[in-house]
Structure formats: C-alpha cells, structure tokens
Amino acid sequence: MLKRTAMYEEHKRLGGRLIDFGGWELPVQYTGVMDEHLACRNAVGLFDVSHMGEVHVEGTASEAFVNYLVSNDCVKLNIKQALYTEMCNHRGGIVDDLLVYRRAKDRFFLVVNASNSDKDFAHMKKIETEFTQKNPNAGSLSVTNESSKYTQIAVQGRHAEAIVQTMTKTPLSPIKYYWFDEGTVLNGIPAIIARTGYTGEDGFELYVAWDKGPEVWRACLEAGAKYGIKPIGLGARDTLRLEMKFPLYGHELSDETNPYAAGVGWVVKPNKGTDFVGREAVLKAKEKGLPYHSVGLKLLERGIPRQGYGIYTADGKTKVGEVTSGTQSPSLGIAIAIANIAIPQSSVGTKLTVDIRGTKVPAEVTPTPFYKRPY
Amino acid sequence: MSFPNNYKYTKDHEWALVEGNTVTVGVTAHAASALGDIVYVELPEVGRTLKHGETFGVVESIKAVSDLYSPISGKVTASNAALVNEPAMINQDPHGKAWMVKMELTDASTLNNLMDAAAYNQFVATLK
Questions:
Q1: Are strands A82-88 and A293-299 parallel, antiparallel or unpaired?
Q2: Domain assignments of chain B as residue spans, ordered by start
C-alpha cells in the first residue's frame, strides 16, 4: 500500500498523474512537465513535498549532536537560520543530503529525502547512541521522527512572496534566503515559514500540521491564481533542480559517494573544530585522489543524455565518465546533464562525447548552474 | 481520446494508415499522452528496410525514452523531417501532422497483426 500525503484528494482533483515515488503516491505531472517547469520559472509553482522526512533534535546536547551528525558547521547557525548539508557514513559516503533548521538554541529541525527517511532515521539513532557513548556528559538529547505530523508545501517562483504574504501576518521580506520565521498562516495555523527551496527560484517552504495541508494548499492556489500559479509534479521538480545542478540522492549522491567528488565539498567543514561522522574517511579519500568530479555538460548536437550513459573523450575512444542526471532543459531548450567525469577531462570547456544508444554525441563541460534566474 | 476508424493499431501504440501499397505510420494519442511532453525524435533514413516489430526509431519525453516498432514489414519511402525539428507535434496532432514514416509494404501478411480501432480502444481500456 502506497503512502499518501494529506493532499492526495487535491492531486486527484487537479488531474495529477499519480505514480509510486519511493513508496509515496504522488503526481509526476498535472498538465505536463514542460508547462509546469516554465510556470515555476516565469510565474510561480506550488509543490506538495509532504513526503519529505522531518526529524526533531532537541536537548542541551542537540547542537553538539547535530554537528557530529552532519558535515556542515551547525554551531555557526543562528536561531531561525537554515543550512544545506550532507550526512555521511563512517566510510565517507553520503547517507543523505538534508536541511538543518535551528528553531532555538537547543532545538533543531532536520528535513531529509522521502525515499531515504527510514534509512536516515535509523542512521541518526545509531549515531545518537554512538554520540552518547562518546560524550556521556553532553547533556539531554532526543531524536524523534516527526515525519507523519507535517505537511510541507513549497511555493516557488518570483511571485512566491506576494502570495504567501496574503496568508500570514509574519513579515516575509525581512526573511533572507535560507532563513525562516515561525508564525501562523490563514486563521491561526502554526507554521514554519522558510525562504528555502530546491528549484533555483525565490520561494518559501511552509511546514504545517499534517491535517492542515489541504486548506493551506487550496489557499495558495487561490491567492496565486492572479499570478498564474500552477501545481507542479515530481517531473518538473526534477528538471528544475537539474537546471540548477542541485544534486539528488540516487543520482549524484549515494552511500559510496565522496562529497568532494559529488560537488558538495562546500558543505564539508573539516576544520569546524569538532569531529563529525565520516570526516576522516572523506578527507583520506580526497587526499588519495578523487576518481571523478561531478560537472555540468551540455550536448552540442541532438540527443538527450540519461542516467547511466557513458561519457567518452572527444574522439569517442576512451571512457571518462558517466551521466548521473540528464534531460532536455525546458528553460534553455538544450540537452543538459550532470555527469561524473575523470578529473583531467572535467574542466569547463573540455569537449567530450556521450554514448547515446551507440552513437557518440558531442558534448562540452559547461559552467553551472545551467540556469540563472533573471531577477 | 478517439482513434481514427480507418487506421490500424499495434499493442505498442503505433498506428498505420494503409492506402494501397503505402503505409503511413505514427504513434497514437494514447502513447503521446502517456509519454508526456515529447522533446526528441529519431527516425529512420529513407530506403531502410524494416521487418514487422523491428525498432525503427525513438521518441523521448523529458522523463523517458521509448522505442518505436514497425507495425509492418516494408521499405521506408519518406521520413517526417519536420517532426524532428518539432517533436511537440506528436503531442499536438499524433494522428495527423505527426506521422513519422511512410513505407512501401513488402509483406502484406504483416497487416494481419494489426488491430482495428474498436479492438485498440478495448485494448487501451484494459491498460488502466
């Protein structure tokens, strides 16, 4: 039996084409990937991301624990600030990527990928035990899986602020990118209102009680109508993140992937002053020499690169890598890919080829993000 | 969704319009809708000989790659170049402007493999 979010009936009513996504019955599209993608880029899009996992970490030891759990530096994180980070295993691979929101000095809110949330939570509990054994006097700590209690709705696009502002008294314009506030939406529904998202657009993510989801969802559609808001399915969610070269677990990230190779070395802080899970292994692998870098590619001729397709030198003779995500870019009208490429061939401007069903199609390593928003 | 009565159909969702010895081939509205926004098409060169069921090209939506299978055995006499430049036509007019190839039938017995519109309608209904 597939799990459903609180918005299941809304998705059906809106004509969403429902699929199994990591055990969740969610719309891959409503009207079409292209249409939805462009609506988000040029106006505003509404996403049901309630399948994401939410974890509460609380207690006097919570800061030290979260900082041990993830690669980024959470000590520097202010109250009402969020950060993107990786959570590594002891082998130096990536268990998942996640957002860490600091709600108070001793209260953190962690948001992980839906398809990983059980694995992630088990990992967190294991690390909690390890942390408590290593630091018996660290203080109080509770790590609880609260996923089933939250509806998460993302409003993404240039009109997101105007729309969400009609639903809350919390002033939104002072909230900077990757900051949040806690207030209410509509008639006093408590909400975390965060200026975060995974589309490359300005926008907000709203966390409300699970059962309040449908009314918040409908209110967003209503308030967004005059801006041309559209509900956005998983298909466009993927192409939007891909145009930004935002990594996705199962594509760019895996339990075996080194964060430096995956292009997320910027959220690894080995000198943050305290140890974290995977630190030694991540650094050792980097010193030994990484097998590849994750880079952006654009195709120079017709064709669409797909995950798993081989990348070869310009003469097509030597294999130098593999596509991890690829699509026809709806915003740019060209085929783009994120690919793991052997480091000598991974610099911007390098001419390569992609093996598309036996034909070696010319491609070039290109700067990323592929898309930059014009406002 | 309606399927022209004068066309024949395959279980792989190609249609074939048989006019004498010439067979025009495309994909059905059902296929186009199931695939979503089509952004890439690969079609065979004129002169290529195809057997019934043989792969003759590829259509790709943003999310997926799908092979095209020849509904009959024959020789390609025309390939719709306009479609290659405007793949979205497959979503807009799958049974008309978005024809893919015209073929000269070389084995009339391969026509027996095809469904008529009523049978295809029934077949599509079972896919829900």
A1: unpaired
A2: 8-125
Residues 6+ apart with CB under 8 A from A267: A71, A72, A83, A84, A85, A86, A259
Tell me the C-alpha to C-alpha distance, in Å, between residue A131 and each of A61, A135, A139, A239, A371.
Answer: 10, 6, 11, 38, 41
A75, A138, A78: which is closest to A102 by C-alpha? A78
Shortest CA distance from A17: residue in chain B: B34
Do residues B36 and B43 touch, judged by C-beta distance below 8 A?
Answer: no
What pLDDT band is residue B1 in, cutting at 50, 70 and 90? confident
Query: Counting every residue, how long is chain A?
Result: 375
pLDDT at residue B63 tops 90: no
Question: Domains in chain A, start-ordered, CATH in brackets?
Answer: 1-288 (3.30.1360.120), 291-366 (2.40.30.110)
How, if at all, do strands A150-156 and A203-209 pair?
antiparallel
What distance in Å separates the CA atoms of residue B23 and residue B111, rounded to the nearest whole number?
10
ipTM of the complex: 0.86
A35 touches chain B (CB under 8 A): yes
Residues 6+ apart with CB under 8 A from A246: A198, A200
Query: At a CB cut-off of 8 Å and minimum separation 6, what does A219 contact?
Result: A167, A185, A186
> What's residue B90's pLDDT?
97
B63, B65, B66: best mutation site toward chain A, by most A Cβ within 10 Å?
A: B63
Q: B36 — contact with chain A (CB < 8 Å)?
A: yes
Evaluate if residue B128 carries a pLDDT over 90.
Answer: no
- Compute the nearest-CA separation of B34 from chain A (Å): 10
Q: Which residues contact A238 (CB under 8 A, 6 or more apart)?
A: A248, A325, A327, B63
Domain formed by B8-125, architecture: Beta Barrel (2.40)
Measured between CA atoms, the residue of chain A closest to residue B86 is A333
Q: What would the two tokens of residue B119 be?
A: 């049978």
Q: At what angle do helices A62-69 and A117-134 cross, to 10 degrees?
A: 120
pLDDT for the residue A86:
98
Q: How many CB pairs under 8 A join A and B?
A: 36
DSSP B24: E
Q: Which residues in chain A (298-337) have CB-CB distances under 8 A to chain B? A: 302-304, 306, 327-328, 330, 335
pLDDT along chain A (375 residues), means of 10: 96 97 95 97 98 98 98 97 98 98 98 95 98 96 98 98 98 98 98 98 98 98 98 98 98 98 98 97 97 98 97 98 98 97 98 97 98 96
Encoded tokens for B124: 């599509």
Which parts of A30-133 are beta strand (E)? Answer: 45-48, 53-58, 82-88, 94-104, 107-112
Q: Is B37 within 8 Å of A303 when comparing Cβ atoms?
A: no
pLDDT of residue A1: 87
Interchain proximity B61–A33, CB inside 8 Å: yes
How long, in residues, is chain B?
A: 128
